[in-house]
Amino acid sequence: MSDGAKPPSSSVFGDTAPMVWIAFTALACTTGVHLIAQIAAPEGFVSDITQVLLMPLLAAALFTASSRPRSRLVRLVLIALFFSWLGDTVPRFVSGDGGFLALVGCFLVAQLFYVAAFWPYHRRSLLVRPAAVAVYAVALVILVALCREQAGALLVPVIVYGVALVTMAVLATGLGRTAGVGGAIFLVSDSLIALRAFTDMELPAHGFWVMLTYVVGQVLLVIAVVAVDRAPAGR
Predict the structure, then answer these.
(1) pLDDT digits (tens, 9 = 90+) for 153-199
(2) In this structure, what DSSP letter does residue 205 have?
(3) What angle do CA 138, 185, 228 make, to 5 degrees?
(4) What letter does residue 90 receive in the DSSP assignment?
(5) How far apart are CA 223 and CA 185, in angstroms?
(6) Which end of the chain, N or C, is less packed with Cβ atoms under 10 Å?
(7) Secondary structure letter of residue 204 according to DSSP
(8) How far is CA 164 from CA 27, 83, 95, 145, in A?
(9) What residues contact residue 192 under an 8 Å CB cut-off, 6+ apart?
(10) Helical ranges in the chain per DSSP H
(11) How would you classify residue 176: left for phi > 0, otherwise alpha for psi between -120 and 50, otherwise beta?
(12) Residues 6+ apart with CB under 8 A from 13
């Protein structure tokens, strides 16, 4: 993943490199098992338990890779990862629309923490380029239009979450290309969830693509955060 797709070098990790690579290796292995399970048995125990482990492992990688004392950026992203973990976990214990609302609620809070984390970099983001922001806005409008008919009473929460998600993706560009790509991929992941929930559109092995884009998006965001945190002007 170069400039936007390669893990940070050991010079970025500094003296924490061994622990960081252990965390990333554990995350990579868990992700691999989870993606296989998404194809073989998406509703099975292996799929469930590995999904619950993903965000804690990514948070461990961020925590060990970041310098001490942890910056505001790192602290807020760690909280965002915590609420992402809740979004992966809590809906398993709530059925029906309540489970979907729990998922949206947890990830909404995660997006708000991402927005707060990335806001100090907004002058470097696409926010200063209205034409680029319009592309994200049009994508959101199209997604809402596709989901509107079947979303019913859930349409308003979906719109609120969509606005927060797009705002995060736009602000992520302020941290550089890696974060910008990560935010865009995260947007794709959640769009796939909405399309499956509220339309007849579904990819073959849909859960596999949802989780692949989810993990890749979050990992790229974390890699960018580490790079900014480690940079001389990043604190």
Answers:
(1) 889 999 999 999 999 999 999 999 999 999 999 999 999 999 998 99
(2) T
(3) 110
(4) G
(5) 14
(6) N
(7) T
(8) 27, 14, 25, 17
(9) 203, 206, 209, 210, 213
(10) 10-13, 17-40, 45-65, 72-89, 96-118, 130-151, 155-172, 177-198, 206-230
(11) left
(12) 20, 21, 65, 226, 230
Judge contact between 207 and 38, C-beta under 8 A: yes
Largest interatomic CA distance in the chain? 54
Helix (H) or strand (E) holding 227: helix 206-230
Tokens 């990830």: give the residue: 107
* Tokens representing residue 105 in the block: 């609620």
Yes or no: say if 162 and 107 are a contact pair by the CB < 8 Å rule.
Answer: no
**Looking at residue 26, what is its pLDDT?**
96
**Among 70, 180, 56, 66, residue whose Cα is nearest residue 118:** 180
Convert the pLDDT of each residue in 22-45 to its tens digit.
999 999 999 999 999 999 999 899
Phi, psi of 8 (to 5 degrees): -60, 150
> Locate tokens 């924490």: which residue?
16
- Calpha distance 189→211 (Å, rounded): 7
Q: Is the dihedral of CA 198, 46, 58, 29 positive or negative?
A: negative
